[in-house]
Every structure is written in structure tokens, then in C-alpha cells.
Amino acid sequence: MSNHLKNEHSPYLQQHANNPVDWYPWGSEAFEKAQNEHKPIFLSIGYSSCHWCHVMEKESFENDHIAKILNDSFVSIKVDREERPDIDKHFQEVYQLMNGRPGGWPTSIFLTEELKPFYSATYIPSEQKYGMMAFDQLLSLICAKYTDEKALLTEKAEEVLRFLHPKEQSIQATKLDDSVIGRFAAQAKQLFDQNNGGFNAAPKFPQTSTLDLLMDCYLLTGNKETLQMALTTLTSMTRGGFYDRVDGGFCRYSTDDAWLVPHFEKMTYDNALLTELFLRAYTVTKNNFYRDIALDTIHFMCEKMSEDHLFYSASDADTQGEEGKYFVYTYDEALRAFTEANIPVIEHERLAGALGISKKGNFEDHSIVHVKDPGNLDIPHYAEAIEALKKTRSKRTYPFIDKKIIVSWNAMMIKSLFKASRIDHDLLGLAVKSLDALQETMLIRDELYHSALIGKKPKIKAFLEDYAYLCDTLIEAYECTLEEHYLILAIQLSNKAIEKFYEHGKWKFSRGEFETKADIYDNSYPSSVAIMLGVLCSISALADPVYQKFVFKTLEINSYEIMRKPILTPKITKIAIRYLKDDVIIKADKALLKSHQIEIGKIAYPFTYIKSDTNQGFMLCTSTSCFGHADDIEGVIHQIADRF
Fold first, then answer.
1. What percent of the chain has pLDDT over 90?
2. Which helix (H) or strand (E) holds 111?
3. φ and ψ at residue 508, rounded to 5 degrees
4. Is residue 618 within 8 Å of 611, Cβ to Cβ?
């Protein structure tokens, strides 16, 4: 029997539509029921590819005993954090305040009937374990407290909300200067894992903006150590596990230090950002290894995660209730696959060993395919073996795919296509088609929306991240094609973003039902504030310098945090460095600036002129990065110098 989620578009909510828990979507119907029946609200926030969300569903939300407690004593609400990032962001902040540490998913929040939060948790086990109370015991305790001590719970909830929205405090600003480059590099070195790459211990996330800024540090200072930290990490990521050596594509994070055992979900944003990062590593090093990983990731996304030129949000970690089942192999399975591929039997044992496949396994008696040196795959029969293992997978059930289209995540992926088109020009047509499809689907009568299923009309209006990432991609499209309509639309959407989300140097992530602050910290992906500032820097260079005032004010307000601990804010630190470099831009006539293009291969790059510190040369500054993307940077510098 279905509950109140049966008519929802969200794939995550549909996953719970047949639970015995009488779930409601977020909205007035649930709120009115809670108020009319004087019941507390149980709010559960998750997403379709979340492993621990599935665990809690199986243990608790499909459990008739627990469902009865929830149905009798609570009003239960399900939220897809990808569909409603504003709700999720608000309650992640609530969780952080209550628990003194960041939350995660599933997020479990208990609220009064007036929507005031009084208790928060993440995953809650159905039985007492991990030092945690069993879910049914917790529900019974909360029921009793709500009946007997509701006034006290409400008072505590109001205290949390007061802390969530503190009174305005004076801004502690400091001078931004080039020393932030060395400070960032030193902080990165302190956290760097010399053996496996990445930062801190497991779980390890890709932290693409940190790696990107390390490459910037190298290009700005010549410090090879910063480049090596980035390249060591990129190489370690691709040995296998976190990077899927069979199908391609990257998982969300690694559960171990060596990037071997991931949570197997694959997110569009990770694959988009890592594609762009590997492309950048290629332009810096000219090592084809990085280019090939980027192009293979694009191939995976187009093959498995795309429809009508748009990109789905995520694929699941679990298959048929088992984490990683689709991805791993037994020793005997692998050898059978080699036999069917006509690989000589005498090579099987050595080949399996080279691919990290053993009888003992490296993940729950199975093996995750991995190699020791992904940059040198001089392994006999490697290509045939990978193809054979892929054929074995083709007979399995593919993980569930959430076919939701999210503007910001699609924009990231489309930008990476434009970046890749500078290396493989054939990808330019695909990038253009994808960007056109995204606009047609999500920009309706001049109103930008956040997400929708393909073929369905979007309902949720866009947040700052959607404006920021789409504008960023439009700027990239303009640079690659020199089609002015992309630049014009970027300016129009940027103006709307300023109108909707900007106020005296501060940015909101969302406005409306939940007004949430936009962070300068890079979490799952780079800060939407930083991306928006990068867009405004570009528009200032390409169209009108008036936009620099928004950049300056935002950097001024956040200058103390940027200078104190840039490792926490790598993307906005990059923008701060770019802004500092803009102080030495040679003031060219705007018309002259717009008319000058330099032909590099098949691509014409718009540029501004920047003096070097020694006044003896010039740097190329494209509108999206003052560190350039040219294949022949020295040749371009000479061309610029010759014009003077």
C-alpha cells in the first residue's frame, strides 16, 4: 500500500512510496496534520544513491513494528536533499549546532508541530549498537518527552534557532596579499598523505578545488612540490576502486587511505569536476595519461549517465541490496571471463594478480580491480581482460540511477565537455547540444529552475549554485565558440543572481521558505559564492568592470577567513589571487580588448593583458583563469609581448 509519496517526481521519494511508514512530502498537508493532532514531526533527509539511507530504510522504514510507532505517534516527512538543498542545508546547520560536528545522510531530525527542531541524528540503527540507542527505543523516549516536557523541548529548539540566526557582528577584515599562496601550500603540505595522495585520513574525498589551486601555486611560483602533491593524488585516485577501471567514472569517496574501497555511488558533480581537473593536469604536464582518464570519464558519463544530452544526478552504491555487488569479482569469475576472452590460460594467474584479483579478495571476499601503476599499463592482455570483465558485468543488474536533472551539476559536466573540446574538437558539438538542452529544460519564461526529471516540468526554483554554475559554463561556452549570446545570457543571469541572493557583500544560498547563507567553504563541491565571484570577474573583464565591486566587497568581508586558513576555502582563495593579479592588468581600451583574440590551434581565446612581477614579460589571462589554458603558453606570451 502506497503512502503520500506516490505522486512525487523525486526518485528518492519514490523509493519510499511503498514503505509501511506513512510518509508525507515536505508541505502544508503534513504540517497541518501535525498541528491538528498535536504530534511531533520526524523528518528524514537523504538521497537515492546513499548507502546508509538504504540501510536505514531496510532496517527501520520497512519494519512494521517501527512503522507503527511512527504512524501512531509522529508525522513522518521525507525530503530528497538533491531536490531541496535549501531544506537540507538548513537542517545540516541545525545538526551541526546541536552536535558540534558536521552531519551526513540520512539526516534524522525531530521537530515540534510548529517546525522547531529539538533532536537530531544521522543514521539510527534498528537495534542497539555502535553505542547508539535502538530506533524504537528512541522513538518511545521522544514520545514520552514530547507529552510530558514539550515546553522544555520547545525552549531548547528556540535556542537552537536563535544561534542559527545570530545578530549581525562586525566584520573582521584583513589585507589580502600574495602571501596567501605560500600559506595555502604550507597548509596543504601539512595535511598531505605522502604515500597515497589526498589529505587527512580516510574517508577520503577528491577535494578537486584544493588540487586545482595546488596546480595554480606551481604555475605562479614554480614550486614543483605543490604540483607533485596534485599529481600524486590524481595518480593514486586512478589505481582502481575509487576510480572504476572497468566501466570508467569516479565514485563519491574512498573508505580507506589508499583509494581502494569506495562507497560505490557515482555522482555527476564528482565526475564533472574530476574530468576538468584531469584535463588541467594534462595541459600542465602534457602527460597523455591525464587526458585519457578525462576522456574515459566523459565516455562513461555519456554512456551510462546521460539521456537527451542531459546528465542524471547519480547511480547507486547498492545492487539488489548489496553494496558494490555490481562492481566486484570473485577469483573464479575473473578467470572464467579471461577464458571466454581467449586469453591464454598460462597468463591467467599473473594477469589476475596484476589486476588486484585474488582468491582472498580485497572487499568482503571479492576483488575490486586495481593496478599498481595506472600511468604505465604495460600489462600483457590488459585491454582484453578489462573488456572481458566488462562483459561479465553486462550480465548483472546495473545499480539504480537517479534520473533527476540538476542544473548546477549538469552545468559542471557541460563545462568539462567544453574544456575537453579544446583537446578533442569533436566534443564541441556535444557540449553545445547539452547546454542548449539544459536551457530549454530548466530556463522557462526567464525563470531558472533547480531540478526535474527528464520529460517532467520543473517545480523548484533555482538556488545560488544553479545560477553560479550555469553562468560559469556559459562563460566557458563563450570562450570556446565566441558566440555572444552565451555571454549575454551569463550577464542576464548574473544580474538576477545579484538581485536575488546578494546583499552588502554577503550571499544567500536560498531565499523563500528557507533563507540560508551561502558558504565560502568547499564541501562536496566548490562554494557557489566562489563560482559566482569567478563569473563576475570574467564579466568584468569581458563586458563591464562595474561587476568588480561585488567581487571586492565579498572578498573584503571574507578576507580574514581566506588569509587565516585558505586550505578550507581553496576556490574563493583562487578568486582572491585572481583579483590580486587583476590589480596589475594593463588598462586597455575596452573595444580593443574585446577585438583582440589569439588563435591557438582551432580555438580562439579571449584574453586580458597582465604584467609580470619583473615587468619583463607577460602572462596570458583567460576570462575564467588567470593561469591560462593554452597548449603553447610561451608562444602566446611572446605574441602578447610583440603587440606592445
1. 84
2. strand 107-111
3. -95, 145
4. yes
CA 590 from chain centre, in angstroms, equals 36
CA angle 405, 409, 415 (to 5 degrees): 120
**C-alpha distances out from residue 368 to 6, 149, 244, Å:** 37, 52, 9
Mean pLDDT, rounded, for 382-400: 97
Give CA–CA dist 50/93, Å, rounded.
Answer: 20
- Check whether 346 has a pLDDT greater than 70: yes
Cell of 436: 542548449
Complete DSSP assignment for 145-199: HHHH-HHHHHHHHHHHHHHHSPPP---------THHHHHHHHHHHHHB-TTT-SB
pLDDT confidence of residue 1: 66
Higher pLDDT, 493 or 622: 493
Look at residue 462 and give its three-state secondary structure: coil
- Residue matched to cell numbers 580491480: 369
Please report the domains of the chain, with CATH numbers, ordered by start residue.
11-164 (3.40.30.10), 179-316+403-443 (1.50.10.10), 327-395 (no CATH), 463-579 (no CATH), 590-643 (no CATH)
Q: Are strands 404-406 and 401-402 parallel, antiparallel or unpaired?
A: unpaired
pLDDT tens, position by position, 116-173: 999 999 999 999 988 889 999 999 999 999 999 999 999 999 988 888 876 666 667 8
Cβ atoms of 276 and 291 within 8 Å: the answer is: no
Q: How many Cα atoms are found within 13 Å in the side-chain-facing hemisphere of 548?
A: 14
pTM: predicted TM-score of the whole model, two decimal places: 0.89
Sheet strands side by side (includes 107-111): 23-25, 75-80, 41-46, 107-111, 117-121
